[in-house]
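I can't quite decide. Please look over this sequence plus structure tokens:

:::
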Amino acid sequence: MKFDRLLSIVLLLQHRDLVPARELAERLEVSQRTIHRDVEALSAAGVPVYATRGKDGGIGLLAGFRTDVTGLTTDEARALFVLASQSAHSALGLDHALGSALRKVMAALPAPHRPAAELTSRRILVEPDRWHAPPRPETNLEDLYAAVLSDRRLRVRYRHGGRTELRTYTVDPYGLVAKAGIWYLVADHKRTPRLLRTDRLSQVGVLEAEARRRPGIELAQVWHHLRREVEDRSTGVRVTVRVRRERLDMVTRIAGGYFTAPPVPEASSDELSRVELVYPVLEAVRHLMQFGTDVRIVGPPEARAETARAITELAAVYGTA
């Protein structure tokens, strides 16, 4: 609706001196011509908005102008309170601040929208951690959060997965990301994007030098690139297995992150499904041994041989004398 778009323009302009019409058009998914018509409508309504031409031009608000959030729709108000039910703010030490902010939002909401917002806060709960998540080392995210906001370079001591030694890196931080209950520091090291689990950081020091981020690159872009790298299944060892149907849910829950596609029922059997997985290295196929005879490796032959070798090693350890 046009009213929602006009309010969005005002809220966006409140945080910047000048915003190019092209950027506003992209953010609101309309044409630049529509943005200019909206600016004229705001001006006619008494909003002190102006436009300047030239390479550094854009659209802005006169200093000191502010609006409130009484333009929120019912669904927008609900969305805020669903967001508040997640735990990210707790990890960053923002519980008190969020509670205060939500009280202010509630007070500013139009009276007809308040019951829906209050009901949402009582009826929706988002728990980001998966079932039976392993205990994680305590991480001082509040200090790391402050360090990231300082916009300075960081010197960190970090332990890579599967290693015991610590390595020292000087990084240029883009920000923090929480995924499935795990926090990551997203940063450049020597202008190359890196993903660092915060629970493997042993020291974080803030340097005097300003962060040297790549021009025009934001946290969301770097995260998208890194996430694609992690989830890329074009390389690795492809393994085909047969799974007993009655155990398929359990196998999917535990090993589903390695599936390349949903399981397919075997045409020759009502009791089995066929699944293809991708593991980063051949030795990782031992992961399937936890399912015993409920999962049977079809191929490749080297995956079967690796599993047989692991079974022989276990028999040597646990076999009777």
User: Anything to note?
Assistant: The first strand starts at residue 49 and ends at 52.
